[in-house]
Design brief:
By secondary structure, the protein is an alpha+beta fold. 56% of the residues lie in helices and 13% in strands.
Length: 155
């Protein structure tokens, strides 16, 4: 039975590529493992790619991660088993989620996974992030002005 937090299906080769990216990043970059560490990494906007296991019980443990990634515009992908994710991280126990912060030699694998799961390249993903930041900065003066006008109208 499909889990409610799994928003899209991932092919076997994309899941394998994601696990390969985790292995490479573990060796040459920085990876956060576990739900709490992944949540902090995503909230701080440090993650390049988040990998979530598709067999987590109870589902509520990782249910918030996809929404958080979407809010922060961070790419995420599902792998079938938490045991496989744990092995990719070099652990002897299962792992529910992992966040790649500094990709190291895994950059090309991450780009490949992102382009296959979202239909766009990592470069366009970064471009969209930059545009979103510009829009957010552009909104701030308007919000400030609106607050000032409301305060003047109240007086």
């Amino acid at each position: 039975m499909a889990k409610s937090y799994v928003k899209f299906e991932v092919s076997k080769e994309v899941a394998d590529k994601a696990l390969e990216a985790v292995r490479l990043a573990k060796q040459t970059g920085t990876v956060r493992k576990g739900v709490n560490e992944v949540t902090k990494s995503v909230e701080r906007g440090l993650s390049s790619l988040v990998v979530i296991a598709g067999d987590v019980e109870p589902e509520e443990v990782v249910m918030h991660i996809p929404q958080l990634c979407e809010q922060k515009r961070i790419s995420y992908v599902y792998v079938p088993a938490k045991l496989d994710l744990g092995k990719a991280l070099g652990m002897s126990v299962p792992c529910s989620s992992a966040a790649i912060e500094k990709p190291g030699e895994a950059q090309s694998a991450i780009s490949d996974v992102v382009s296959r799961t979202t239909g766009r390249s990592a470069a366009s993903h970064e471009k969209n992030e930059a545009e979103a930041k510009k829009e957010k900065k552009a909104e701030r003066p308007r919000e400030k002005k609106a607050v000032e006008q409301e305060a003047a109208a109240a007086n």
